[in-house]
């Protein structure tokens, strides 16, 4: 939400346990008119940091899955420091799964200033 304008720009959630082996799973959706402003990167980074501390789990990571064809979402997940860990077919399309590095916190500065990374 943009506080100044009280405008919703998208939604984020952490599902724990998720459909993928009970791990914490990030889900996100941002409205196209708000892409390219850095809102998603800021929100995703903050939510990952929070989830790693606040949501008990046996696995010290957060995962996210997106379609291979969704290049904007993939760039966003990579920009916050997530790494590809798997590819699979689901919902009639090729999917890619990303994970945070269990030994390194979310990278809030990766790609900073580059507003072309859009969800």
Automatic annotation (TrEMBL):
Region described as Disordered: spans on this chain: 99-119
Gene Ontology molecular function terms on file: acyltransferase activity, transferring groups other than amino-acyl groups
Name used for this protein in its record: N-acetyltransferase domain-containing protein
Source species, domain of life: Bacteria
Residue ranges of domain N-acetyltransferase in the record: 1-102
Signal peptide feature range: none
Name of one Pfam family that matches: Acetyltransf_3
Native species: Mangrovactinospora gilvigrisea
């Amino acid at each position: 939400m943009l506080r100044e304008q009280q405008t919703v720009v998208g939604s984020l959630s952490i599902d724990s346990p998720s459909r993928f082996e009970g791990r914490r799973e990030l889900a996100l959706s941002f409205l196209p008119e708000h892409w390219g402003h850095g809102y998603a990167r800021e929100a995703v980074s903050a939510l990952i940091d929070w989830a790693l501390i606040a949501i008990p789990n046996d696995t010290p990571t957060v995962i996210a899955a997106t379609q291979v064809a969704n290049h904007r979402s993939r760039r966003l997940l990579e920009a916050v420091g997530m790494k590809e860990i798997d590819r699979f077919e689901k919902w009639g399309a090729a999917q890619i799964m990303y994970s945070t590095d269990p030994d390194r916190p979310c990278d809030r500065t990766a790609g900073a200033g580059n507003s072309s990374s859009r969800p």
